[in-house]
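User: Show me a protein chain along with its predicted structure.
Assistant: Here is one chain, sequence first, then C-alpha coordinates.
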Amino acid sequence: MNFTHVYSGNPVDRGEKERRDDQWIADKAKDATSKFLPLRDLNVLVTDGEDRLGWIGAADLNRLDINSSPVFLGLLGETAHFTVDISAQNKAVAELSNGNGYRFVDARSVTEILSGPDSGIVAQARAQINWHNRNGFCAICGGESYMIRGGQVRKCSKCESENYPRTDPVIIVVVSDGDRCLLGQSRRGRLNRTNTYSALAGFVDQGESIEEAVAREVMEEAGIQVGQVRYHSSQPWPFPSSLMIGCHADAATTEINFDDEEMNDVRWFSRDEVAAALQGKNDSLNVPQPIAIAHHLITAWVNGG
Protein backbone atom coordinates (compact mmCIF):
# COMPACT_ATOMS: atom_id res chain seq x y z
CA MET A 1 0.00 0.00 0.00
CA ASN A 2 1.22 3.49 -0.80
CA PHE A 3 1.21 5.93 2.11
CA THR A 4 1.50 9.65 1.40
CA HIS A 5 2.30 11.91 4.34
CA VAL A 6 2.74 15.65 4.64
CA TYR A 7 6.12 16.65 3.10
CA SER A 8 6.07 13.63 0.79
CA GLY A 9 4.73 13.28 -2.76
CA ASN A 10 7.20 15.79 -4.22
CA PRO A 11 6.47 15.86 -7.99
CA VAL A 12 9.80 17.44 -9.01
CA ASP A 13 12.18 15.49 -11.25
CA ARG A 14 15.44 16.29 -9.47
CA GLY A 15 17.36 16.40 -12.72
CA GLU A 16 20.31 14.12 -12.06
CA LYS A 17 21.58 14.33 -15.65
CA GLU A 18 20.98 18.06 -15.96
CA ARG A 19 22.94 18.75 -12.77
CA ARG A 20 26.11 17.45 -14.39
CA ASP A 21 26.18 20.46 -16.74
CA ASP A 22 27.07 23.60 -14.76
CA GLN A 23 26.52 25.79 -17.80
CA TRP A 24 23.01 24.40 -18.24
CA ILE A 25 22.28 25.25 -14.60
CA ALA A 26 23.66 28.77 -15.05
CA ASP A 27 21.60 29.31 -18.19
CA LYS A 28 18.41 28.07 -16.54
CA ALA A 29 19.01 30.37 -13.59
CA LYS A 30 18.64 33.26 -16.07
CA ASP A 31 15.92 31.72 -18.24
CA ALA A 32 12.65 33.66 -18.38
CA THR A 33 10.66 30.44 -18.08
CA SER A 34 12.37 29.23 -14.89
CA LYS A 35 10.65 29.56 -11.53
CA PHE A 36 12.13 30.46 -8.16
CA LEU A 37 10.76 29.85 -4.66
CA PRO A 38 12.07 32.42 -2.14
CA LEU A 39 12.67 31.47 1.48
CA ARG A 40 13.23 33.98 4.25
CA ASP A 41 14.64 32.63 7.51
CA LEU A 42 13.50 29.21 6.25
CA ASN A 43 9.91 30.44 5.94
CA VAL A 44 8.32 29.80 2.55
CA LEU A 45 6.68 32.32 0.21
CA VAL A 46 3.03 31.70 -0.67
CA THR A 47 0.57 33.71 -2.73
CA ASP A 48 -1.70 35.71 -0.47
CA GLY A 49 -5.31 34.63 -0.69
CA GLU A 50 -4.73 31.81 -3.16
CA ASP A 51 -2.67 29.58 -0.89
CA ARG A 52 -0.16 28.44 -3.49
CA LEU A 53 3.60 28.41 -3.48
CA GLY A 54 4.90 31.87 -4.32
CA TRP A 55 6.98 31.16 -7.41
CA ILE A 56 8.64 34.18 -8.99
CA GLY A 57 10.57 34.56 -12.26
CA ALA A 58 14.12 35.44 -13.28
CA ALA A 59 12.98 38.98 -14.07
CA ASP A 60 11.75 39.31 -10.48
CA LEU A 61 15.18 38.30 -9.19
CA ASN A 62 16.71 41.21 -11.09
CA ARG A 63 13.97 43.66 -10.16
CA LEU A 64 14.29 42.81 -6.48
CA ASP A 65 18.11 42.83 -6.55
CA ILE A 66 18.29 39.22 -5.37
CA ASN A 67 21.90 38.11 -5.76
CA SER A 68 21.84 34.92 -3.68
CA SER A 69 22.82 31.78 -5.58
CA PRO A 70 19.66 29.83 -6.46
CA VAL A 71 19.54 26.13 -5.62
CA PHE A 72 18.22 23.88 -8.37
CA LEU A 73 15.27 21.78 -7.17
CA GLY A 74 14.63 20.07 -10.49
CA LEU A 75 12.18 20.01 -13.35
CA LEU A 76 8.42 20.09 -13.61
CA GLY A 77 7.83 19.23 -17.23
CA GLU A 78 10.35 21.32 -19.17
CA THR A 79 10.48 24.10 -16.57
CA ALA A 80 13.44 24.42 -14.22
CA HIS A 81 12.53 25.14 -10.61
CA PHE A 82 14.88 26.69 -8.06
CA THR A 83 14.74 27.85 -4.47
CA VAL A 84 16.60 30.92 -3.24
CA ASP A 85 17.39 32.26 0.23
CA ILE A 86 16.53 35.95 0.39
CA SER A 87 16.98 36.40 4.16
CA ALA A 88 19.76 38.98 3.64
CA GLN A 89 18.14 40.62 0.59
CA ASN A 90 16.51 43.62 2.24
CA LYS A 91 14.72 45.01 -0.82
CA ALA A 92 13.22 41.65 -1.74
CA VAL A 93 12.17 40.88 1.83
CA ALA A 94 10.51 44.27 2.19
CA GLU A 95 8.55 44.05 -1.06
CA LEU A 96 7.47 40.43 -0.72
CA SER A 97 6.47 40.89 2.93
CA ASN A 98 4.42 44.06 2.64
CA GLY A 99 1.08 43.00 1.20
CA ASN A 100 2.09 42.78 -2.44
CA GLY A 101 0.25 39.55 -3.08
CA TYR A 102 2.65 37.36 -1.13
CA ARG A 103 3.42 36.36 2.44
CA PHE A 104 5.99 34.19 4.18
CA VAL A 105 4.68 31.27 6.21
CA ASP A 106 6.42 28.94 8.64
CA ALA A 107 7.21 25.61 6.99
CA ARG A 108 5.09 23.74 9.54
CA SER A 109 2.07 26.02 9.34
CA VAL A 110 2.17 26.13 5.56
CA THR A 111 1.11 22.48 5.41
CA GLU A 112 -2.35 23.52 6.59
CA ILE A 113 -2.94 25.44 3.35
CA LEU A 114 -0.88 23.68 0.67
CA SER A 115 -1.55 20.52 -1.30
CA GLY A 116 0.44 17.37 -0.56
CA PRO A 117 2.79 17.68 -3.55
CA ASP A 118 3.55 21.32 -2.73
CA SER A 119 4.42 20.37 0.85
CA GLY A 120 6.95 17.93 -0.63
CA ILE A 121 8.57 20.79 -2.52
CA VAL A 122 8.66 22.80 0.72
CA ALA A 123 10.48 19.94 2.45
CA GLN A 124 13.12 19.78 -0.28
CA ALA A 125 13.58 23.56 -0.47
CA ARG A 126 13.81 24.10 3.29
CA ALA A 127 16.21 21.23 3.84
CA GLN A 128 18.51 22.30 1.01
CA ILE A 129 18.65 25.98 1.98
CA ASN A 130 19.25 25.07 5.61
CA TRP A 131 22.07 22.71 4.62
CA HIS A 132 23.80 25.38 2.51
CA ASN A 133 23.48 27.90 5.34
CA ARG A 134 25.21 25.49 7.73
CA ASN A 135 27.98 24.30 5.42
CA GLY A 136 29.75 27.35 4.08
CA PHE A 137 33.15 26.03 5.14
CA CYS A 138 34.97 22.74 4.62
CA ALA A 139 34.92 20.31 7.55
CA ILE A 140 38.34 18.98 6.52
CA CYS A 141 40.52 22.08 6.07
CA GLY A 142 38.23 24.99 6.99
CA GLY A 143 38.33 26.50 3.52
CA GLU A 144 35.33 28.29 2.08
CA SER A 145 33.08 26.06 0.02
CA TYR A 146 30.89 26.81 -2.99
CA MET A 147 27.96 25.16 -4.75
CA ILE A 148 28.28 22.82 -7.71
CA ARG A 149 25.77 20.57 -9.44
CA GLY A 150 23.06 23.16 -8.92
CA GLY A 151 23.49 23.06 -5.16
CA GLN A 152 23.50 19.30 -4.73
CA VAL A 153 27.16 19.44 -3.68
CA ARG A 154 29.48 21.94 -1.97
CA LYS A 155 33.13 21.90 -3.01
CA CYS A 156 36.01 23.27 -0.97
CA SER A 157 37.90 26.13 -2.62
CA LYS A 158 41.16 24.97 -0.99
CA CYS A 159 41.39 21.19 -0.73
CA GLU A 160 38.65 20.55 -3.34
CA SER A 161 36.89 17.96 -1.16
CA GLU A 162 33.18 17.58 -1.85
CA ASN A 163 30.42 17.68 0.75
CA TYR A 164 26.99 16.18 0.06
CA PRO A 165 23.75 16.94 1.89
CA ARG A 166 22.88 14.46 4.60
CA THR A 167 19.55 13.06 5.65
CA ASP A 168 19.32 11.79 9.22
CA PRO A 169 17.26 8.58 9.59
CA VAL A 170 14.94 8.54 12.61
CA ILE A 171 12.88 5.56 13.69
CA ILE A 172 9.44 6.22 15.15
CA VAL A 173 7.47 3.31 16.51
CA VAL A 174 4.17 2.35 18.08
CA VAL A 175 4.79 -0.63 20.36
CA SER A 176 1.74 -2.74 21.15
CA ASP A 177 0.76 -5.44 23.62
CA GLY A 178 -2.55 -6.78 22.39
CA ASP A 179 -5.12 -4.02 22.89
CA ARG A 180 -2.63 -1.63 24.48
CA CYS A 181 -0.03 0.61 22.88
CA LEU A 182 2.98 2.37 24.34
CA LEU A 183 3.14 6.16 24.04
CA GLY A 184 5.39 8.71 25.70
CA GLN A 185 6.36 12.33 26.26
CA SER A 186 9.91 13.46 25.53
CA ARG A 187 11.50 16.08 27.76
CA ARG A 188 13.07 17.67 24.66
CA GLY A 189 9.76 18.64 23.06
CA ARG A 190 6.71 20.70 23.90
CA LEU A 191 4.49 17.70 24.63
CA ASN A 192 5.57 17.55 28.26
CA ARG A 193 3.54 20.69 28.96
CA THR A 194 0.34 19.06 27.75
CA ASN A 195 -1.44 15.73 27.98
CA THR A 196 -0.21 14.84 24.48
CA TYR A 197 1.54 11.51 24.08
CA SER A 198 3.26 10.29 20.93
CA ALA A 199 5.08 7.32 19.43
CA LEU A 200 8.62 6.70 20.69
CA ALA A 201 11.36 7.93 18.36
CA GLY A 202 15.10 8.36 18.02
CA PHE A 203 17.95 8.67 15.54
CA VAL A 204 19.38 5.56 13.92
CA ASP A 205 22.94 5.15 15.18
CA GLN A 206 26.00 4.37 13.07
CA GLY A 207 26.25 0.72 12.06
CA GLU A 208 22.68 0.03 13.13
CA SER A 209 19.74 -1.48 11.26
CA ILE A 210 16.20 -0.11 11.51
CA GLU A 211 15.14 -3.10 13.63
CA GLU A 212 18.11 -2.65 15.94
CA ALA A 213 17.39 1.07 16.28
CA VAL A 214 13.77 0.36 17.21
CA ALA A 215 14.82 -2.17 19.85
CA ARG A 216 17.49 0.12 21.32
CA GLU A 217 15.36 3.27 21.43
CA VAL A 218 12.38 1.53 23.02
CA MET A 219 14.63 -0.06 25.64
CA GLU A 220 16.41 3.24 26.34
CA GLU A 221 13.26 5.34 26.54
CA ALA A 222 10.80 2.89 28.10
CA GLY A 223 12.73 -0.11 29.41
CA ILE A 224 10.61 -2.37 27.18
CA GLN A 225 11.97 -5.20 25.03
CA VAL A 226 10.40 -5.62 21.60
CA GLY A 227 9.85 -8.63 19.40
CA GLN A 228 8.82 -8.41 15.76
CA VAL A 229 9.30 -5.01 14.06
CA ARG A 230 7.17 -4.13 11.02
CA TYR A 231 7.78 -1.24 8.64
CA HIS A 232 4.75 0.98 8.01
CA SER A 233 5.77 4.05 5.98
CA SER A 234 8.20 6.97 5.95
CA GLN A 235 8.02 10.77 5.99
CA PRO A 236 10.53 13.47 5.07
CA TRP A 237 10.84 15.84 8.03
CA PRO A 238 12.77 19.01 7.11
CA PHE A 239 13.55 20.18 10.67
CA PRO A 240 16.36 20.29 9.77
CA SER A 241 16.65 17.24 7.49
CA SER A 242 15.39 13.90 8.74
CA LEU A 243 13.63 10.88 7.31
CA MET A 244 11.08 9.49 9.75
CA ILE A 245 10.93 5.70 9.41
CA GLY A 246 7.59 4.61 10.80
CA CYS A 247 7.25 1.16 12.36
CA HIS A 248 5.03 -1.00 14.53
CA ALA A 249 6.54 -3.44 17.01
CA ASP A 250 5.29 -6.15 19.34
CA ALA A 251 6.18 -5.86 23.00
CA ALA A 252 8.22 -8.73 24.42
CA THR A 253 8.03 -7.32 27.96
CA THR A 254 5.47 -4.94 29.49
CA GLU A 255 6.95 -3.44 32.68
CA ILE A 256 7.82 0.21 32.01
CA ASN A 257 11.10 1.59 33.36
CA PHE A 258 11.53 4.83 31.45
CA ASP A 259 14.57 7.11 31.36
CA ASP A 260 13.45 10.17 33.33
CA GLU A 261 16.28 12.28 31.94
CA GLU A 262 15.03 11.80 28.39
CA MET A 263 11.35 11.09 28.91
CA ASN A 264 8.77 12.98 30.93
CA ASP A 265 6.42 10.00 30.97
CA VAL A 266 5.73 6.69 29.20
CA ARG A 267 2.43 4.80 29.53
CA TRP A 268 0.34 2.00 28.14
CA PHE A 269 -2.96 3.17 26.67
CA SER A 270 -5.92 1.02 25.67
CA ARG A 271 -7.23 0.93 22.12
CA ASP A 272 -10.47 2.59 23.27
CA GLU A 273 -8.57 5.42 24.99
CA VAL A 274 -6.48 6.10 21.90
CA ALA A 275 -9.46 5.86 19.54
CA ALA A 276 -11.29 8.45 21.61
CA ALA A 277 -8.22 10.71 21.56
CA LEU A 278 -8.06 10.52 17.76
CA GLN A 279 -11.69 11.70 17.70
CA GLY A 280 -10.95 14.52 20.16
CA LYS A 281 -13.15 12.88 22.78
CA ASN A 282 -10.58 12.01 25.45
CA ASP A 283 -9.93 14.85 27.90
CA SER A 284 -6.97 13.03 29.46
CA LEU A 285 -5.11 12.16 26.25
CA ASN A 286 -4.17 14.00 23.09
CA VAL A 287 -2.20 12.54 20.19
CA PRO A 288 -0.17 14.32 17.47
CA GLN A 289 -1.96 16.02 14.59
CA PRO A 290 -2.05 14.59 11.03
CA ILE A 291 1.02 16.60 9.99
CA ALA A 292 3.11 14.04 11.91
CA ILE A 293 3.69 10.43 10.92
CA ALA A 294 3.04 9.52 14.57
CA HIS A 295 -0.64 10.33 14.03
CA HIS A 296 -0.86 7.86 11.16
CA LEU A 297 1.05 5.14 12.97
CA ILE A 298 -1.31 5.47 15.93
CA THR A 299 -4.36 5.53 13.65
CA ALA A 300 -3.20 2.40 11.85
CA TRP A 301 -2.75 0.59 15.16
CA VAL A 302 -6.22 1.62 16.37
CA ASN A 303 -7.66 0.29 13.12
CA GLY A 304 -5.90 -3.04 13.58
CA GLY A 305 -2.88 -2.34 11.38
